[in-house]
Amino acid sequence: METGEIRYLKSLAKQYPTIPLAATEIINLQAILSLPKGTEHFITDIHGEYDQFRHIMKNGSGAIKRKIEEEFSNSLSIAEKKGMATLIYYPKLKLKQVLKQEENMEDWYKVTLYRLIRVCKNASSKYTRSKVRKALPKDFAYVIEELLTGRPDVSDQEAYYNEIINSVIRTGRAGELVVAFCNLIRRLVVDHLHVVGDIYDRGPYPNLIMDTLMKHHSVDIQWGNHDVLWMGAAAGNPACIANVIRISAKYGNLNTLEDGYGINLIPLAKFALTTYGQDPCEVFHLDYREEEYDVKDAALDQKMHKAIAMIQFKLEGQLIHRRPEFQMEHRLLLDKMDLEKGTVEVEGKTYPLKDTSFPTFDKEHPYQLSPEEAEVVERLVTAFVNCGKLQEHVRFLYTKGSLYKVYNGNLLYHGCVPFNEDGSFKKVRVFGQAYSGRELYDVLENYARKGYYSIDPEEKQKGLDILWFIWKNANSPVFGKSKMTTFERYFIADKETHKEPKNPYYRLLEQEEIVNKILEEFGLSQQEDAHIINGHVPVETKRGESPVKCGGKLLIIDGGFSKAYQSKTGIAGYTLIYNSYGLLLAAHEPFESVEKAVQDGSDIHSHMMLVHHSNRRITVSDTDIGEEIRENIEDLEKLLRAYREGTIVERQ
Question: What's the CA gap between 134 and 141, in Å, rounded?
Fold first, then answer.
């Protein structure tokens, strides 16, 4: 046995100092391998839609209903099963309703608790008792464990079991126990959550979504381009900050910044009123939702919208000049404007401008901020960098997130793997060196982390610039279009200029050899049931598009979670469930409201599609955790041999 291995085993011996302890752990781990794998839940392109997100999180994309159906089948009516599902989703709100309507609460508590115990036993059956114990709420850990492991059908235990429930009711804690059981059921039904990008922008409450994710017991995030934009803003990139504010203004969501994050926008508001006070800013109309927006703010918000858009175009021009290797000179459009003629030249063609009132524009220095604009930008950068709530959320994105993830034989990423038309991986130059495929993802993620964490000024600046590159460059894996035509959409009426051609990936992904090539690139070529799970581009279901490609090898699960996309997609988002039986794709209709769900027991109507069914039940042994467990067993067996051979001495 080599010295290094002995040193490692001695370290392991501190945790398992005797043969019985090491042997017991081997037995425990070996048994865990045979348990069914935990359920994974995939969700993408949330775009600030908190209510829809929260409900799908609570119902587990139908997983809760399936547990209730498995347990009660025809023994409960449809109305009773619907009521139980609503209780599990929103226990506190449902209890308030029940308290107003129910005459005999003692009986209701008894019946409800017995039913919840049955559902909870079903949900916990695939886990070890140790794992379930760790998930128990502290206040009711003993009570719940006794109720889950007790046998009310055995005469010796029946009285004990019933007395626990009677005592809980008598001491006035039955309502709290109901809530605790409901929370535990939701916790056990979904073992792990994957968020495949774009938590931010368009919808009004990304901050609440982030708060929810930070409380989740097990989650990973694959960054979308909108997430990276906010990460760049939090890191202090002025161009990213301008984009964040412009998009928030456009969708009537400046309250997200002011109230949700406490970012002071008064300097921008004052500047906008002073500079564009007499300008109706008609081109900068807002795409707000009437039910969620105070229209009295519209005039000011349009002026702020225009002010920050012009600042954005200037800041981005400066960045493009500073980083010629980004190859974005074709996006320099301010210097192509002729305000006397009211025209702009784009890609060799001249178009009339819809707006020519630009008081801060200097023809000789088109990308130079005016002194007033520069002061606004400086104050905004300070506000973003010093915003505690935003920094907390962005650190969580960095800690739990990445540009891609390989997990249990599936490859998860938000946008696309950049391809050439001939089906070869596109080579992209990043600071003097060419990368493609997986290497491109890795180098971009490395610099994205430097943009936030690096203390080296030069490396940090590179990282800051890469965060903006990831947001909107044609070669960014999470953008995947040849250009972002923000300028043209504001100022040019001809819609041909608004088009944003997609990377060849989106045409090639119908070919199985291309999908296989991607899986091989990310180390999954040997996995028989490997899948790519992809977000970013909404699937237009109402036009007959399918989210399932190449016989289920690739799944695009962006179905329009954001209300801004639902008229285009015809649904309100896809989610994916991967349990021990296979993959289930859910297509969701729009969520009405929490109030309606509680009052009427209404749920999101979802169409389920079986994407992949395993020939045998998938166990922990088949997962990444299973691989780790087998490695641990191997190490423990080496430790046992070392004890028995006398190489390492037991410590009694």
Answer: 9
